[in-house]
Design goal:
about 210 residues; alpha+beta; six-stranded antiparallel barrel; five-stranded antiparallel beta sheet; about 20% helix
């Protein structure tokens, strides 16, 4: 999924989608679980020093350094803890100069200017792996890519064999859909969490641009 041509304009369009996580959580009200998206990224080709497999979180609001989250291993049907906030809030300049990320991935994380004016700026953090996630083994199926990013959940989240997520005292039926783009230059992953009550569903969308 990391192969392909650089398409800055497409990346800006895709980047707005990850911010839907923040919008969905805010719209659903204060009782909604605090969640977002995450991406496992590396520095651009030829960057020196080269950085590999750095996880980044995109969240709807500020969190303190040391805050802990679980990731969803979609192929295994389980949550794994933990990704832990390692940095201060990051902006596009830091992502470019400190981590030397390709522009398409910076756009994935930061979103588009027009969208952010309407929805609010994203909160981006470098994360580090702790606990079970350090030695977690992902599926080796060629079509599996949960190691590249996806849904970021509260640290105490769990998932049962039927696909129901438990977040605190609440239970959510999880639906997943991957929407490949027609030009094969990326895909949008959509996670829909439907609560057992009549409350609105929470939708988290995570774009995967290619370059």
């Amino acid at each position: 999924m990391y192969d392909g041509k650089f398409r800055g304009r497409l990346a800006m369009l895709l980047g707005t989608c990850l911010l839907a996580a923040a919008a969905a959580v805010a719209a659903a009200g204060p009782a909604s679980p605090f969640m977002g998206g995450w991406r496992n990224l590396h520095s651009a080709n030829g960057a020196d020093p080269a950085l590999r497999d750095v996880p980044f979180a995109v969240l709807p609001a500020a969190v303190a350094k040391g805050a802990r989250f679980s990731i969803l291993d979609r192929e295994a049907g389980r949550t794994v803890c933990c990704l832990v906030v390692e940095s201060e809030r990051l902006d596009a300049i830091a992502l470019e100069t400190r981590y030397r990320l390709p522009g398409v991935w910076i756009a994935d994380l930061t979103g588009g200017e027009e969208y952010n004016r309407r929805r609010g700026e994203p909160h981006i953090y470098e994360m580090k792996r702790e606990g079970d996630l350090v030695d977690h083994v992902y599926s080796d199926d060629p079509a599996a890519y949960s190691d590249m990013g996806g849904l970021l959940l509260p640290a105490d989240a769990s998932m049962d064999a039927t696909g129901v997520l438990t977040l605190g005292a609440d239970r959510y039926r999880l639906q997943f859909k991957s929407l490949p783009f027609a030009d094969e230059n990326g895909a949008l992953d959509r996670y829909t969490l439907q609560p057992a009550s009549a409350a609105p569903a929470v939708v988290v969308e995570v774009p995967f641009s290619t370059y």
